[in-house]
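Here comes a specimen:
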Amino acid sequence: MRDEVESIFTHIGGSPLLPPRDGDLPTLTRCVDSTKVLPVVTAVAGFRLGNLPADTTTFVGRKHDVAEVKRLLSKARMVTLTGPGGVGKTRLALHTGSQLRRAFADGVWLVELAGLQNGALVAHTMLESLGVHDETGRSQTEVLTEYLRDRQALVILDNCEHLAEASASLAETLLRAAPGLRLLATSRQRLGLPGEHLWLVSPLPLPDPQQPMASGAWLQYPALALFEERAAAVHPAFAVTNETQAKVAEVCHLLGGIPLAIELAAVQMRVLTLDHLLSELTDCYRLPGMRTRGGLPRHQTLRAAVEWSYQLCEPAQRSLWARASVFAGSFDLAAARQVCAGDDIDADGILTHLAELVDQSVLICEQDGNATRFRLLEPLRQYGRDQLRALGTETEIRRRHRDYYLGFASSCEEDWFGPRQVEISVRTRLEHANLRSALTFCLESPAEMTAGLRLASTLWFYWAGCGVLSEGRHWLDRALAGVPQPSACRAKALWINGYVATLQGDLRAATAMLEECRAYARSARDDIALAYATHRLGCNALVGDDIAHAKSLFEEARAAYRRLGELNSNVMLAGIELAVANVFLGDLDSAAALCAEAREIGWSSGEQWAYAYAIYALALVALSRGDLDEAAELGRDCLQISQEFHDLLGIVLAIELLAWAEAAQERWERAATMLGAAQRIWPSVGYPMFGSRYFGAPHGDCAARTREALGPLFETAIGHGCGLTLDEAIAYSLGPAKPATAPSAGGRTLPSSLTEREQQVADLIADGLSNRAIAEKLVISPRTAEGHVNQILRKLGFARRTQIATWVAQTSGP
């Protein structure tokens, strides 16, 4: 056998003898010149050819990626794995290649290009990797073509980005000449060949940092499993437990889910505790001594991997990378143009530079609906920030970033009172991280404090309207503490923060801020600030159970608003809150009239957020009058609108009211479940029912009657409701509440899941009315009408409105 092996690595008459395919051995053994043995890495009959390195560590996760890359290679001859440095492109390619050895008779071969600087040597490097030697002076591409022409092989071209043009040219030539060849490339950007298929290698998935981790949940996340395995390799006693999994998840989040970063950090567990590692990870590529032996120099530290990417960029791309580091989370093109343009970056050409950075896997491009957004992974963002700091321009670019988001917030505030409210809610939530960053910048410097106060105040619609009360209070408190001097800007912040504190149930702090605002407004003759402070003191009195005083303050504020010509969502709320006060005082007719006025304003302006509270107040009126079906329908309408804004206060108030309506109709289990769901939501808002006797009385009555009716099952139902997620709680509260056969007003039997309001909508569809016409007819918002239509389609299993009309015709009485 030894003689046969030696015969494979022999030159015959000056011509190269190439590594054989399986089945070639009998022929080759007749051609032996034992004086010329070449050191070629290969194998002989019974073994697969190739040069893939043996794994020294286990391959963690990526099952889906491996399966998809295999699938792509089964139908495409050129597949390129793209993604940022350190994300695991090479490891994925090698693991996939090792699993495909049996599929390629002539082996799987790795060609490493990272250390190569001259594109003219790509073909030579490939020949060396394949174990093919030729000293005749022929073109290296010609030798490769001859060798691969009749072979079935998979070649992995690793790290092509810096030699993309040369790699692409050679690959195209070889693919045309060798029909049995498959190429699997790794590169930060596509090579641009015809027929090239791409697979983006993303960072490892991570648990949601906002959600608690269940027992043993870390096993579901490859990033945490990778950390555990690599840490245990250097510190055998280390193991992830239920007590430490959250900290390990935080480490992995700080490292952006990048496998290389995780592996390098895990090595530090040999000298650091987990807590110490977390504290050191303020800069995730700068851990002391974070270094491994072996491998390419650029893989020895994460910083080296990042610097590798940075050095490959053009000067304008480097500048953009550095400036984009001021963004937190993701950002859009408009933000990039205003914040990053200037000097060597032309605003008109910034999209081109962004695309180039995406191609190079420095930026990640994300689609959010119809919007395109970009983001830097945290390690790359931190590196960019270092470059920005070294250039001495960090403060300038951060101020540009702040100015952009202050303008963004001001525009959103101006447009909030109108039909774009839901869009503004979504956009502001997308920019939440950037708004935080802008606020942080302002509140870190005395010179920027006033701008921070203005930004925190301008975002009132987001804090109060989109379920972000606690964070809004945090920023407003800090900004007010930083700008103690009286001013119109401070006055606005005072009444807004007073309002937020009232909603949280912190009435003492709210009163202090609102009284300070009123005192300033009177001394400065600021009638607008005075009107808003008076209005919000009315809210304070309302939840503080001083209903008569609240009514007086609301009426005073409304008169001032009319005199000043103010009309916006806050002005609408003054009338709605006055309506609630009238409900508590027993004046239901006045309350209904005020709600009708608010609904008309909302309808004519397209405003929906405050409109939802008008619906809630009307539901209170209906409940007080004993019109339980109407109260429930209005409560559901309020809940659906509030859900669109993620307005936790509106959501929990609607769920509470629906629970009361269920109890009034003796549907005890549903009532208890909804009470449990509300119980879980309230801590995210403030004190349950504001700690108010008037707001809390129906809740207490509902709970007492339901407990008495259910007995021991009451706590079970409460527990069920507490266990629901927010979306599940909303779905449950909007769900079926009718008996299995509920006769409608038309005398027909309805499906158990179709509510009376939905039947009304179905009848109007059958009459040919559009969604907008239905909304006008039922005095609800167009979006709510659309929601009813979608619910009907889902419940009846239909796809088109015409099917609803047919169903109505078929089920109607004679």
